[in-house]
């Protein structure tokens, strides 16, 4: 060894000995094995040192990168339902999938029944009850209550409401008895002719009237369909206005006259002429044959 190399070794040893801690005595140096651990020659688990409570425990909070990775994984899991984290080259995958299902269920009750109508079936009609068909011609005094009643016939589709009218051909007027009247098994309407006549712009006349009953959703002139209510206009009745009271002394009969009319006079003359000719002929033949 060269002198220069020997000198460098001495200086290095002197610096090392100056930095060596002061153990106080030889005994402290003898116990240095308590601070140092020897090398393990085998993989026996029992020979491994056991961590004590005095040793600090490592947590993920001490590692900023692990904390950020955990936060990122939680945020990603909330959005996509899948989070992946890695630590010491080991991947841990957490997958989330919602369980359960919501299914709307229900049963709709009720069904519509379609009625099939043959083309050969008649249209719905009306049969009068009041007045009865066998009652004959009907005349009502203006000022009294008038009532009509009827039944429905051959009706497959019942209308929701009906209109009842009365028409007069003399003045071409239409009088409303009921509008949007509910349909029942037996229809009926009451007409206060006195209240109407007191405020009527078109008064009732002493004439014949026609009762009209039809579906409110249809019209009077609509063509009757099979199974549906057709416009009814078969019942006619008369209305008359009563005359005011006149004392007998002041009463004059417009059709009463003592004199005979020209026609009656001619009839009497013809009868007398024929009778006279017959009697004269009888006497002539009786005298000619010597009977007289």
From TrEMBL:
It holds the Pfam family DUF7137. The keyword Signal applies. Residues 121-255 form the DUF7137 domain. InterPro entries: DUF7137 (IPR055561). Residues 99-120 have a biased composition (Low complexity). Residues 37-123 are annotated as: Disordered. Residues 59-75 have a biased composition (Polar residues). It comes from the Eukaryota. Residues 76-91 have a biased composition (Basic and acidic residues). This is DUF7137 domain-containing protein. Keywords: Signal. Residues 1-19 form the signal peptide. The keyword ATP-binding does not apply.
